[in-house]
């Protein structure tokens, strides 16, 4: 297993060992003791999965307020996504910064999204299945988000904004400067 640092403080890309042959491949997507040895020690308690049937589906930018915040470990089971994180932890050296990552059924990469990050992705292919583990349960009263097109953040999506397919909720998140946040970065 290989764990890669990113430009965002505390975000990691996880590459598990993939064993392939003429039949296909095998990989252990999550093995608790191997993750702990790699410095990732979360008590994941729920698995989620989404299906997006067409390219351009944007889900995000979501987070849950503390104490209901969630760490996520996600991957694309089928298809390809452009996954984006924004650091919303006040005091973080990367506060308000974003970074995007390609996750796909081909690269087998997983993304560790720590608490205090707004998260979203856009599908680049049809029939994208995304699976992710979380270490906290969904709490509707703590559900929040920031605008995917916030000009102060400047996320560069890989397709024109007028080609995106969003839920009603995701079309109306506030800009970061107006968002309800209660995260504070703590140096490790």
Search tags:
isomerase; 5-stranded antiparallel β-sheet; Jelly Rolls; mainly beta; 6-stranded antiparallel β-sheet
What does this structure look like?
The protein has 188 residues and is mainly beta. The chain has one helix at residues 32-37; strands at residues 2-5, 12-15, 18-21, 24-27, 46-52, 58-64, 72-78, 80-87, 98-104, 109-113, 117-123, 128-134, 143-145. The longest helix has 6 residues, at 32-37. A six-stranded antiparallel beta sheet has the order 1-2-10-7-12-5, with no helix packed on it. It contains one helix and 13 strands; from the N terminus they run ββββαβββββββββ. It is globular and about 50 Å long. 3% of the residues lie in helices and 39% in strands. A hairpin with a 6-residue loop joins strand 1 and strand 2 (12-15). It has one domain: Jelly Rolls (Sandwich), CATH 2.60.120.10.
